[in-house]
What we know:
Serine Threonine Protein Phosphatase 5, Tetratricopeptide repeat
Amino acid sequence: MKQRALPLGTIIAGVALMAVLATGPVQADVSTIQTATSAFGRGDYATAVGLYRPLAEKGDAAAQFNLGVLYARGLGVTRDYGQAVAWYRRSAEQGRVEAQFGLGTMYLAGLGVPQDYAEAAKWYRKAAEQGDAGAQNGLGIMYDKNRGVPQNYAEAVAWFRKAADQGYAAAQYNLAFMYDKGRGVDPDVAAALKWYRKAADQGYPEAQDTLGHMHAEGRGVPKDLVQAHKWYTLAAAGFTPSEAKQKALALKKASTLAQGMSPEQLAASGNLARQWQRPSP
């Protein structure tokens, strides 16, 4: 099963600002939180560290998590994964969902702690049971990959579905893949196509690449070279610099397809690709 592994910094950054605005079980001074939020937003990380640290030391779970983020990303402080883990743990033990997900990710990657899939699964589960879509997707991957939990495709599907229903693009792609391959569910090309489209519409390049292949082969949809070329083009544009191999492969598939297309078909594909945009939330 193909999985898209986002860099740790991207994962942590995705929840950082959301947590800045919230408070934990120990209510923080609202004006201090607002000042810290403003400092974080304008890139004054040293000030943010100075404001979060006393709150974190007093036990505020949101400040503890945010201080962990700053250590994990090296913002306002020297990057220190051990300190990041320490602050995530203090926050996670208070039930802070973002910290539980962050701590699970550190165990998964072996950053600041020895790599431990069982601990990663433990913390992902805690966050997943609180409804965190990233953790639900992560736990699904662990069930699919036999990492820290016994391999169980049905469980993987169940967790992917929970996250997919929340609009989490990676989980939508993973759920589609399970339907496509009949892992944990009966094979269902129509259901796979539905979830690939949902992920592709959010700009998820693996899903766009897969839709390109399905349209090129006429699998689950009528064969349509224009649509196939469009999706390959969008996929190539969506892959990050760290995904250079995937980008090159998508470009190669688009180029190969183009050899059998008319100028009018290529123009139509180009127009569709330029007109495509992510649906509004």
